[in-house]
Design a protein that fits this description.
The chain is α/β, with parallel strands linked by helices and 191 residues long. Helix content is 27%, strand content 20%. A seven-stranded mixed sheet has the order 3-2-1-4-6-5-7, sandwiched between helices.
């Protein structure tokens, strides 16, 4: 079984430097939050996906649970994306692999998530979505990478693994695999 992981523990400082507004709770035109959309797409393909958040974010946790995620509060996540990912991988050590996406990417196509998960057909495989040859999200790792993922720390995420191993790209034909919400004006670009 491939375990879905949604990283939702970032600070979003570019979205709101004051820290008062959480970009993941910003709403899209349908009234649902950015995080809810990202989580719902992931859980449609991989029910029971893990969403990693920092402690004390009850509204975010409620949105993620409503979308179908199991929420993992992690003090480690305060150190960055790599630490959050390591905590989730450690929490699901028996998985056949992990599909990782970001909670600030609400436009990921469900079919692309499904295709990237299906590409993990052997333990050493790494696969990622792409648009016009540019690697995006989600990214999936076979079980052979579990030990390396579980020891990540800081904010670099799995960049080193992606740099040093072949990555099987799945062409999505959709720029939703590249688009995230970093600034308030990105919300206006919703489809």
């Amino acid at each position: 079984m491939i375990q879905g992981i949604l990283l939702a523990a970032g600070y979003g400082r570019r979205f709101d430097p004051s820290g008062h507004s959480n970009k993941l709770l910003a709403t899209l035109p349908d009234g649902r939050s950015v995080a809810w959309h990202a989580a719902r797409a992931l859980c449609t393909v991989l029910p029971g996906s893990i969403a990693v958040i920092r402690p004390g974010h009850e509204a975010l946790a409620a949105d993620l649970r409503d979308a179908g995620c199991r929420v993992l509060e992690s003090t480690d996540a305060e150190a960055g994306m790599g630490s959050a990912l390591a905590h989730a991988v450690g929490d699901s050590a028996g998985a056949d692999g992990w599909l990782v996406t970001l909670a600030d990417m609400p436009w990921l196509p469900v079919d692309t998530i499904r295709a990237v998960a299906a590409a993990i057909d052997r333990p050493e495989r790494i696969a990622a979505a792409a648009c016009d040859g540019q690697r995006g999200h989600p990214v999936a790792f076979g079980a052979a990478h579990g030990a390396a993922l579980a020891t990540l720390h800081g904010d670099s995420g799995a960049r080193e693994l992606l740099r040093t191993h072949p990555v099987h790209l799945i062409e999505a034909g959709d720029d939703g695999v590249l688009r995230d919400v970093d600034l308030p004006e990105h919300l206006q670009h919703a489809r």
